[in-house]
Design a protein that fits this description.
Elements lengths: L2 H16 L3 H13 L9 E5 H8 L6 H7 L4 E3 L3 E5 H8 L31 H14 L4 E4 L6 H9 L4 E5 L3 H11 L1 H13 L5 H13 L1 H13 L13 H13 L18 H10 L3 E4 L3 H8 L5 E5 L20 H13 L5 E7 L7 H6 L7 E5 L12 E5 L4 H6 L4 E3 L2
Parallel strand pairs: 4-5, 4-7, 5-6, 7-8
Antiparallel strand pairs: 1-3, 2-3, 8-10, 9-10, 9-11
Helix pairs in contact: 1-4, 2-5, 5-10, 6-7, 8-9, 8-12, 9-12, 9-13, 10-12
Length: about 425
């Protein structure tokens, strides 16, 4: 089907949905209650057309009109029509739509990615200065992110156009799948169309999507994969991109409190993100996506003099509010293995290690890196979105000197050692 035809159908569908009356919403709720046992596919109702028409007779509504009201997913085999249960629930009992007014325009609002615990979004100005410094002053022409997470730093590197190659590696299959969907042209268009028809989710719809995502076999494999490839340097990459799974992950991270908690009723509808997501999709073009164990990626870049490597592993438990915050966890022993590798040799590559640091006592990163053969430095980011203690502020450890940058921007960086 032509792209403009799909857009036209979606437009008519959304217009019809905006005109729903209370009687229409009561009808859709009754429809959910009556056919709830028809969930043959997770979170989807698949019902024969004659049964739907028989149900609609009492309301005087045609099947075509009903399908427009409910954003029907289409017709399947056996003349069955498919409907998304979370969409039906959210249309029947819509959640409130929050009108939010921002005091100022966010300087990087053209980079929109998945909400992620520990994301670097609030420090993009600092990282942009560091990227410019390493590219212009230290001769780095290649960029590597070993723990991509939300991918926001790789997207920032793409936006700055300072590096000729950019590699974003993410070990979690679920998060890697989201990035593949965002990068592919066909999958991204499908993702946007799904986003257009998603109404403001209510609590019931959110909990259904969350339960389906976290209890699915594919998501459960994330933790088992961590056991299988730990300490290895070979890992099979995910081969296909799944738009529906990417959409579920995006919605859960968007509506969840602090990306991991329960339903938050203060979020904007996801359709508000389409313009920013479209701009972000273009930034994926020069990025090479990989789904490997971080060590496999890291050892390939350490000996490259023109390589800038960013390491942002899951934060240590000591500095977290939420203890189970990542699809693939990184315990204390894994942090020690990583820091031992970095402190073992003098590597030609420029390395940035991200984390938190306790100002009252020496942390594990500083303790190992001060004994390294190479000269390592530690810097603190002074800006924060909320007032916080020093030990909860972002720190980076680098194997290159950034003192001139700190002196130039004293309100943004502080030299620790």
């Amino acid at each position: 089907m032509a792209k403009h035809t799909i857009q036209k159908q979606t437009k008519y569908m959304l217009r019809k949905r905006d005109m729903l009356t209370e009687q229409n919403r009561a009808m859709i709720k009754a429809f959910c209650d009556k056919f709830r046992d028809y969930e043959k596919v997770p979170m989807e109702l698949r019902i024969e057309g004659k049964e739907i028409r028989r149900f609609l007779e009492q309301y005087g509504v045609t099947l075509q009109t009903f399908n427009k009201m409910t954003s029907c997913l289409g017709r399947t085999t056996g003349n069955r029509y498919a409907y998304s249960i979370p969409v039906l629930l959210s249309i029947a009992e819509p959640a409130p739509i929050i009108e939010r007014k921002y005091r100022r325009k966010f300087q990087v609002n053209r980079i929109k990615t998945i909400n992620y615990y520990g994301s670097k979004r609030k420090w993009l100005e600092e990282y942009q200065l560091i990227f410019n410094y390493t590219a212009d002053g230290l001769g780095c022409s290649r960029f590597m992110e070993c723990f991509a997470g939300s991918g926001v730093l790789s997207l920032l590197a793409s936006k700055g156009k300072k590096f000729r190659t950019i590699q974003a590696n993410e070990a979690s299959p679920a998060t890697y799948n989201y990035h593949c969907v965002m990068k592919g042209e066909k999958t991204f268009q499908e993702f946007i169309r799904e986003l257009e028809i998603i109404p403001q989710l209510n609590r019931d719809a959110f909990m259904m999507i969350r339960q389906n995502l976290y209890n699915s076999d594919d998501y459960a494999k994330d933790e088992s994969h961590a056991q299988q490839y730990e300490g290895c340097e070979i890992r099979k990459e995910v081969q296909t991109a799944d738009v529906k799974k990417a959409m579920r992950l995006y919605l859960i991270k968007h509506y969840a409190f602090q990306c991991q908690g329960g339903w938050s009723g203060t979020r904007l509808p996801p359709s508000n993100h389409i313009e920013a997501l479209t701009d972000t999709h273009k930034l994926y073009e020069p990025i090479e996506l990989t789904n490997l164990h971080y060590r496999k990626v890291l050892v390939n870049g350490l000996d490259e003099q023109d390589m800038l490597i960013v390491l942002d592993p899951p934060y240590q438990d000591t500095y977290r509010v939420q203890k189970r915050s990542y699809g693939l966890e990184f315990n204390e022993r894994k942090h020690r293995v990583l820091i031992q590798l970095l402190s073992k040799e003098v590597y030609p590559a420029k390395i940035i290690l991200c984390g938190y640091r306790d100002s009252e006592k020496e942390d594990m990163y500083s303790r190992y890196l001060k004994r390294s053969k190479a000269e390592w430095h530690c810097y603190q980011f002074l800006r924060s979105s909320v007032p916080t203690e020093d030990k909860k502020k972002e720190h980076i450890w680098t194997n290159f000197d950034m003192s001139c940058l700190c002196n130039q921007y004293p309100d943004m960086f502080k030299i620790v050692f």
